[in-house]
Design brief:
Layout (H helix, E strand, L loop, with lengths): L1 H17 L6 H37 L3 E5 L4 E6 L10 E5 L4 E4 L4 E5 L3 H11 L5 H13 L3 H14 L4 H7 L2 E3 L2 E3 L1 H7 L3 E3 L2 E3 L1 H18 L1 H12 L4 H12 L7 H8 L5 H12 L7 H10 L3 H14 L2 H10 L5 H14 L5 H6 L2 E13 L4 E4 L2 E4 L7 E2 L1 H8 L13 E13 L1 H11 L7 H11 L2
Antiparallel strand pairs: 1-2, 1-5, 2-3, 3-4, 6-7, 8-9, 10-14, 11-12, 12-13
Helix pairs in contact: 4-5, 5-6, 9-10, 9-11, 11-12, 12-14, 13-14, 13-15, 15-16, 16-19
Amino acid sequence: MKSRYRDRQLAMNRFFFQSRPPFRKDGLRSAISNAVNRSQSKIVHLFLFLLGGSFCLFAEQAPADVIRLKSGGEVRGELSEAQAEESAPVSIRSLSGAQILIHRDDIDFVERRSAVLEEYETRVRELDGSIEAHWQLAEWSRSHLLNEKREEQLLAIVSIDPEHAEARRILGHQKHRGQWMTEDEVMSDRGYVKYQNKWMTPQELALIKTDVKQREAEIQWYPKIRVWLSWLTGSDPQRQRKSLELFAEITDPDSIPALRKMMEPDENTNVRLLYVDVLGQIAGSSAIPALVDRYLFDDYEPVRRAAMDVIFNSRSEAAVSLLISALRHQSNLIVRRAARGLETIGDTSAVPALIDALVTTHRVTYSKTEVAGNGFSMSGGQVSFSNGNPYSTWSPELYAAAITGQVNVEPSPYLPRTTRTFAVSVPVKNADVLAALETLTGRNLGFNERDWYVWWSVHKS
């Protein structure tokens, strides 16, 4: 077996070597040389192709600088690197390839620009002055992203034909009072001014500038209040006393935003009481909205009482207006507090609003639990309680007793129950509002709004 396998291998080897030419070293060298030459030839051709493309690309993107001479002429080409000495002549390679040296005293100005811009200038010099030529150059400028040059050509078109609609449209012009104007010209003619890319009236601009100045003044208080409040709530007694002294000196209305931001939501009731005291030190009506807010919405009654004391002493009309607005609040608790506040202030101008608030409507939410299948039905002289139990059939006598209340019917504890939440609007008679009306008018006409309006129409003067 082994000898037959060896003979077969020898036969295959003889066939393999006989079917191929003899191996020669010089043939190997020749094959390698030919392969290398072919590869080098391909590489050279590829290099020349890329190099040619690069020349074309650079030719398109080559700079085209301009030197304008004082004599009125100009030289275009590529500027050489900046000279080390400022007095040295300027060197430029012209479009024809010549290197030119120009003395600086002969130069009006030097401008560096791209080849596409140079081409635009060349096209401008070749224009015949017709609308069609300017339009074609405007379109060429658009395709080459030369937006400013496109606008130049469009303006040249409308200077030739003022009614050229398409050029006017692209330029953003519109007819105003029979004349073509830009948007800026139209808005200025209407009395508007432009501020931060927005058009507004001069009055609005004045308010904005005032608000900016005020906001800058308000911002300066934030770090001060933050530090003083940290001293007040810290453990250092000396700093606590110092912070109280600093808070006692606050009289600037610009401090109110910082005070509201940092002290109004504080959980410490002593901090909120101090907050109300500081607001009371600020003259004018600037602090009234913050004080009314504490009176209406603070959960701590001493804070509300302290706020009302400051409001009462200020006799501010702004406080009356804010409390009247609170009579329409969705919460009945706030309505009642507003009525008590108006009663304390004693301003009879609030009477009509109090009459409107005698009875207010508020949404009340409640939950109801229902039992599934709780009902009655009759069939074949039998009455069934549909609670899901097929054995609960009643006689007519029992059914009659159930529906007349003689028998208390309890649903099965095994029936499924569902809880639903409802929100309904409920009219509420406000006793605090009525008390305020009695105090301000000396009359008690109950909750009859019509009687109050009739009485007030006679006695309001």
